[in-house]
Amino acid sequence: MTLGNNEKKMLSAMRTKMNHIWSLDELLEVTKWEDQVHIAGSGQALMDEEFVEIIETKRKIVSLGSEGDRAVKNGLLEFRLWSWIIGQTKSNRTMKGLFEAGFERFEAGPGVGLLKSLGVSIDAGIFISTNEDQITSQIEERIKFISQLSNNKINSNELDDKMIEHFIGRKNLINVEEYVIREWKLTKKGIDIDDSRLEEIELIGEITPDFLQKEGWEQAQYKEFDINADAPIPMGGRPHPMQSLIERIRSVFLEMGFSEIEGDYVQSAGWNMDALFIPQSHPARTMQDTFYLDEPKEIDIPEDMLDLWASVHESGHDTGSLGWGAKFDKEESKKSLLRTHTTVNTVKHIAQNPESPCRVFGIGRVFRQETIDRTHLPEFHQIEGIIHEPNASLPMLISTLKTFYSKMGYPDVRVRPAYFPYTEPSVEVEVYWRGKWLELGGAGIFRPEVTEPLGSEWPVCAWGMGLERLAMLVLELDDIRELYQPDLERLSRMPIL
Amino acid sequence: MPTIKFNHSILQYMQSKYGIEYSSDEWEEKMPSIGCVVEENDDVGIEIEIFPDRTDLLSHETIARAARAFLNSAEYSPDFEVDEGKIIMTVDSSLEEIRPVILGAVIRGVDNGNSIEEKNEFIQSLMEHQEKLHLTLGRKRKFASIGVHDLSTLEPPFNVISVEKNHMFIPLAEEEEMSIEDILKLHPKGKEYAHLMENMKKYPVIIDSDNKILSFPPIINGNHTTVTENTTDFFIDVTGWDIRSCEACLLLICLSLAERGGNVESIQINNWNEEKINTPRGDAKIHKVPNRLIEKILGMSLDREEISKSIKKMGGTLIDSRTVTDGTEKVERWADCMVGEKEHIIAMPRWRNDIMHPIDIVEDIAIGYGYDNLPDQLSTVHLDAIPLPSSDLHRRISSSLCALGLQETQSLTLSNKRDQFEKVRWLEKGKCTVISNPITQDHTILRQYILPSLLNLLSANRHHELPQKVHELGTVVRDSKNKNRVAWACAEVGGGFSASKGIAMALLRDLGASLEQIKFEKVSEKEGPWIKGRGAKILIEGVEVGQIGEIDPNISFKFGLRVPIQAGEFNVDALGQLIADPVL
């Protein structure tokens, strides 16, 4: 490997004193570098190439802890106690006196322990010491030790080890941090290297147009960059993940021969619910589940359509169904609302084309009266596909579902019976995704009470799913709001789907 | 979907009564095939999802019975045995106005368990069953409510009468008499269901021959009829407004108790109109299912044996398969059976009131046969797949704006008039869609413009560094019709009006407009969110297609923003009409 200019520079500098052990400061001085990162980096590279040996020495730095600061300010506990003791006559040196002098119990306990370790004993409640001068001088040494640490960090080799040991045993008086000192020394290979290998060459960093216009650019050598260094990630215009997910699903439908339809958000309860044979007493029709509108208040529905729905709901009309039995309220049908499912579009499509076979799909927003939280929004996306043709059947529905989900990338599909108010039979779809089965849609064949009043004779295979749950899963979001009220930085970090 | 937790111990007890070994793992594996997904299966019990149409699976006893038929091929007659009893319940004519449907039944000799634990578990489960029926079939007691009584505490015959609001009796679990009025005001159950009794002048009660009140439907029972661990004989009353729900509730409670060895006896209801009926009625309902409908829905033909086996698993019986001699002349409806066609006569238990049409039987046959055993079949009708005419335009607008460095966003269509009109000084275009029952003041209308959504988005991101550049292509609603619009907003230093004009020109160029077509016109003062003299309307062939400009800091401030912003909004539908697609 060829050495970089920095490595050459450091090696040359070290070769001015072949057997010297270099400290960081010495190397900074001799290389004229201001940033020690260069020494660390070049030194490491030189060691990797075995030109230099790095000597690491562990050191400890001692500083005051929170209690130590207090001791410097207020006096060491044993000092304060000892000062009080020697200030009293020998018979007044009692524990009782200690408390009367204002020492708190939480201090007295550890304090007496400290005094005992200094040679003070207690006899019948009286403090007794034989060598007062020695105790005083021991305490003074301790004061001196912590005083020099006041607002100061000192290397442990400049301090008395016994003192360090003593104060480490006391809570929060001193802190000892360990660190490593590095020194650099030439190896034999570093001493023996040929000077010619240490000639610095101009290395090109950023390439400018000017440089490439100049003579001699062909011979230029380029600086090698640290490929692991962080680089700024550009921000730009990118598609929103929901939109991309919609586009993927749209292509699947188009590939499978389905045409796209769309419809308005504002619909009548009649088309949104009555046409789908959802009974007027159904809980989902309440103000707690559906957004009803003040403007427009009502939506016109042809009277013959209303009569037909009324008859189907009340008694099944001529479908052979019992109907729901309860009285049907036509005014309820005219109420306007924000569509609660995209099925309102498909059912209108069938009503408009009852005798033409079709495969159509819709993708759009639907609305539910939900308070916004991590998993709920009052509006979200649904997709829906239908097949309306003479041979439409349950097996056709299931086979189509398998194709649909396979094309989305989920080849393992299973189905089981389910219940939806307007389909019979009904199907729940699960796909295998990252090791588990995931409910990913509902399906079924529209009930004859739905299709026959619209003039259709054929079964309608229908299926649908909500998109947000899938989006949250693939984007690993735990809050649905990140899709529609996003933090732009987080949005810019989401993958493009 | 509602899920219900059943204890293993009680399911075990029920199945062992019928000589079957209960295995929760087997339920977890196979019950989804009948639509009952096991959500949890732990040491204590299993939690099962029950679809709202299968109200016949809401008790231990009834789901255990369904499992025996489906998993263990146990055979059940769809006819439910009811002995004729002697108890009479007379209904006063005043009930016609306040609670017209009155039904009842007696069950004697119920096995309520061996140990005190089993007896208590049984009472608990009976009460839960009752509550679940109230919630589902009963539509929170509006359609139907159920009273369960210890028969030994009662003195038949019974009378259903109406009383004034000051009428007193001791309600369940109370010690003192309370008036009807006080029950509705003070008792927890009374308060919960008082709305069902609004505007009633008199209130329904059931009394026995001692004139003691056993039930004040749909609110609460009398205290003395309480079911205890010694109760083995029951009187059930079901009252309400919906005859079908009431009949099903009564039968399902009777079925649960009969599954525990109880003997069900009918009672005679003497109605005000001289009508005398015996309830409950246990005989199976007979359904005629055209073979054609089975073939149409299943996409294959099943033979008699397969149909019989499939429906048996679902608790029904194939009585006969025959060629129709008395049917319609041609087939107009799925339910029709033409002369010469084959039809199947199928008996289903009367409590299956989800069966409204032969299609419901066909679904049961499909479930019994197994969805997994159906053949593969795909649509073969030739049809062209046609995307929406707007889809190319939308794709091209999005790519253009993304390429210009504007992050695509999506925001809610729900908005409010302050954000949409007042703050940005734009006018309502056509009728604005207004919500009757908004959840928050922020979401009272559907938006007519998109730019306010983007300004709110920038406001929510003001803690991040500039520049922030966003766009949204989305739906607005005017005159109840969906319209497509696109807007962008850039919070950036050094942008300003010319940057907004640059983006507008780039977008229009990308769409294929010839730049000479485009005219700029000053917006009138105080129109739109723009600084005076830095806002413009864009016209193509004299038609306004959008507005651009630099946002007035006073406007940004109303959105909580104190950064320079340039922005614009276009009518996408108008762009589509006025600029020809380059490919077409």
Structural summary, described in words:
Chain A is 38% helix and 21% strand. Chain A is an alpha+beta fold. Chain A folds into 3 domains: 5-62 and 179-222, Orthogonal Bundle (Arc Repressor Mutant, subunit A), CATH 1.10.10.10; 66-172; 242-265 and 339-493, 2-Layer Sandwich (BirA Bifunctional Protein, domain 2). Chain B has 17 helices and 28 strands. In chain B, a hairpin with a 2-residue loop joins strand 26 and strand 27 (543-551). In chain B, 45% of the residues are buried. The chains are: A alpha+beta (497), B alpha+beta (584). Chains A and B meet through helix 12, strand 9, strand 11, strand 13 and helix 17 of A and helix 9, helix 11, helix 12, strand 19 and strand 21 of B.
List the helices and strands and how they pair.
The complex is a heterodimer of chains A (about 500) and B (about 575).
Chain A lengths: L4 H10 L6 E2 L1 H8 L4 H13 L3 E13 L1 H9 L2 H11 L7 H6 L4 H14 L2 E3 L2 E3 L3 H18 L4 E2 L5 H8 L5 E13 L1 H5 L10 E2 L4 H5 L7 E2 L18 H15 L3 E2 L5 E3 H4 L20 E3 L7 H13 L14 H5 L1 E3 L4 H10 L5 E10 L11 E10 L5 H15 L4 E5 L5 E11 L2 E11 L1 H4 L8 E7 L1 H8 L5 H4 L3 H6 L4
Parallel strand pairs in A: 7-8, 9-13
Antiparallel strand pairs in A: 1-6, 2-5, 2-6, 3-4, 10-12, 13-14, 14-18, 15-16, 16-17, 17-18
Helix pairs in contact in A: 1-3, 5-7, 5-8
Chain B lengths: L2 E5 H10 L6 H7 L7 E4 L3 E5 L10 H13 L15 E4 L3 H4 L2 E8 L7 H20 L8 E7 L7 E6 L4 E2 L8 E2 H7 L1 H6 L9 E5 L5 E4 L3 E2 L12 E7 L2 H17 L3 E8 L5 E4 L5 E6 H8 L5 H10 L3 E7 L18 E7 L9 H12 L21 H13 L3 E2 L5 E2 L1 H6 L11 E2 L9 E2 L4 H10 L7 E11 L2 E11 L4 H16 L6 E5 L7 E11 L2 E9 L1 H6 L6 E7 H7 L6
Parallel strand pairs in B: 4-7, 4-14, 19-23
Antiparallel strand pairs in B: 1-3, 2-3, 5-13, 5-14, 6-13, 7-10, 8-9, 10-11, 11-12, 14-15, 16-18, 17-18, 20-22, 23-24, 24-28, 25-26, 26-27, 27-28
Helix pairs in contact in B: 1-3, 3-8, 9-11, 10-11, 12-15
